[in-house]
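Journal club prep — side note

Before the paper discussion, L.F. wants everyone to see what a predicted structure for a comparable chain looks like in token form. Sequence:
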Amino acid sequence: MPRISKYSDIKKPENELQQDYFDRHTPYIECDDQVKEGEIIKIKVKMGSDFMHPDEGTHHIGYIQLWDRETMLAEMRYLPGALGGKTAHAEVDFYIAPMVSVCLTVMAYCTKHGLWQSEAKHVNVIHPEGTV
């Protein structure tokens, strides 16, 4: 079983180099907190907040996966050079239509530094009768 890293594994980065390392490998989720049942929502995933990740032959983001608890919902794979061979934020938009409330997480794989997990993002589904 591979080790899974999280930005929250470190309480406070000791220096900018450590902050850069953790930030560039951390997937961040952006989406609404609430959606109507069956409505398609966009989930934006971005690798890194302040620091960008390399896109080199032996060091790049290999894939980004969207999970609802233990069920993988979607996946995006990247080949080296897919981002022009430049340091960049790998980003992807996933679209889902949840019928029940979900607890989303993202798993992302760096070909040099392993598997990284986002913080969980809860999305509540509002049913026609107004219940969550």
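L.F.'s comment for the group: The mean pLDDT is 90. Keep this in mind when we get to the figures.
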